[in-house]
């Protein structure tokens, strides 16, 4: 297939593009590079032995999207381009609604104009809110508790309405939980610009000497050690989930929702200690106040993905930490210096 991947230079995007290239698909990456690097796309090409086409474009720009569809003729879209920091969305909600919701509408309008009606959408576990019991299942009534989650919820509603309006659409909505780790090669991984929003990059940057102390946001939650519980799964497993959903849509029209998760909650301190085991040394940390928009505990019931897609998380917490540490050791400053020197 010819597949357009929005956000394909990002963390999840780069791993997904690599998996698609290795499966012999032709891939076009669309990314504005606001929190990613074209170097990731270059390295993916090296790992795969074949390159993805790259176009720098903003998904809110319909003219640019039309030009891309006319030049590359994709059969399907994997839509990963979004702003994604929960606490940032609380302080800048308009940016999040414009990019995540208006940008998706622009993408869908361009897809409609070019008769491309297959899409895998990157949603989030944050759509479940805090009113649902754990584990979260796809049949629950959703209700996000922060602007980031509400943008994902609104896009899910748009996709549902679109699928109901035209039976030709094939739509997979993937509610994934907390991707972590890196490609086992150590060549591609998570490289946030500025202060990291996700847990493993925050810990790894302390371990590699870029930051002095790891900040634990909240130690008084009603959990087994007082820190937040999250459902972590390896980014390579997440990439395989996108490929599995795309294969399912080849055979099945309609709108589908699947959780991608491990089915277990792991605390911030448990992750920290697992990463210390991978590094082999203690990592300094301090517990500080809670962060706006964070929920105490989130984990998935991933059984529907296993039943429908034959997908499950296969990699362990130790593998996530070991792979992420290999990436961070090999790239202490992320892609920045490598991009300048083309190493």
Task: Give me some keywords for this one.
343 residues, alpha/beta, Rossmann fold, seven-stranded parallel β-sheet, two-stranded parallel ribbon, 13 strands, 16% strand, disordered C terminus
Structure, described:
It is built from twelve helices and 13 strands. By secondary structure, it is an alpha/beta fold. It has one domain (2-341): NAD(P)-binding Rossmann-like Domain (Rossmann fold, 3-Layer(aba) Sandwich). The strands form four sheets. Strands 3-2-1-4-5-6-11 form a seven-stranded parallel beta sheet, sandwiched between helices. A two-stranded parallel ribbon has the order 7-10. A two-stranded parallel sheet has the order 8-13. Helix 1 (11-22) links the parallel strand 1 (2-6) and strand 2 (26-31). Helix 7 (199-207) runs parallel beside helix 9 (268-279) and helix 7 packs across helix 11. It is globular and about 55 Å long. The two termini are 31 Å apart. 50% of the residues are buried. The model is unreliable at 338-343 (pLDDT under 50).
Task: Offer a concise description of the structure.
With 343 residues, the protein is an alpha/beta fold. 43% of the residues lie in helices and 16% in strands.
Average of the residue pLDDT scores: 95
Query: Class in CATH?
Result: Alpha Beta
At the fold tier of CATH, the topology name is Rossmann fold
Count of individual domains = 1
Distance between the termini: 31 Å
Percent of sequence in beta strands: 15-25%
Helix content: 40-55%
Please outline the major beta sheet.
Answer: 7 strands, parallel
Output the CATH homologous superfamily: NAD(P)-binding Rossmann-like Domain
The tally of beta strands, per DSSP, is 13
């Amino acid at each position: 297939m010819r597949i357009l991947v929005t956000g394909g230079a990002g963390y999840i995007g780069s791993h997904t593009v690599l998996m698609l290239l290795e499966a012999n698909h032709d891939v076009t990456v669309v990314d504005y590079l606001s929190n990613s690097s074209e170097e990731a796309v270059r390295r993916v090409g090296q790992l795969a032995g074949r390159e993805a086409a790259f176009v720098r474009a903003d998904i809110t720009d319909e003219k640019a999207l039309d030009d891309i569809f006319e030049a590359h003729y994709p059969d399907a879209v994997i839509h990963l381009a979004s702003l994604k920091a929960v606490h940032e969305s609380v302080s800048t909600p308009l940016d999040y609604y414009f990019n995540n919701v208006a940008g998706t509408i622009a993408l869908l309008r361009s897809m409609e104009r070019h008769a491309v009606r297959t899409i895998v959408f990157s949603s989030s576990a944050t759509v479940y809110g805090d009113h649902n019991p754990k584990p979260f299942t796809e049949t629950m009534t959703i209700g996000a508790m922060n602007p980031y989650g509400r943008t994902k919820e609104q896009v899910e509603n748009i996709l549902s309405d679109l699928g109901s309006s035209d039976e030709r659409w094939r739509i997979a909505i993937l509610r994934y939980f907390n991707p972590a780790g890196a490609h086992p090669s150590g060549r591609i991984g998570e490289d946030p610009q500025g202060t990291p929003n996700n847990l493993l990059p925050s810990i790894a940057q302390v371990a590699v000497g870029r930051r002095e102390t790891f900040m634990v946001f909240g130690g008084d939650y009603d959990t087994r050690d007082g820190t937040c519980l999250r459902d972590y799964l390896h980014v390579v497993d997440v990439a395989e989930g996108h490929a599995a959903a795309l294969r399912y849509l080849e055979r099945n029209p309609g709108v589908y929702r699947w959780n991608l998760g491990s089915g277990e909650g792991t605390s911030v301190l448990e992750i920290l200690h697992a990463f210390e085991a991978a590094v082999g040394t203690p990592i300094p940390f301090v517990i500080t106040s809670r962060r706006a928009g964070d929920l105490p505990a989130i984990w998935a019931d991933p059984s529907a993905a296993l039943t429908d897609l034959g997908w499950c998380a296969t990699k362990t917490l130790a593998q996530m930490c070991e792979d992420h540490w290999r990436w961070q050791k090999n790239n202490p400053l992320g892609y920045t210096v490598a991009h300048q020197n083309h190493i």
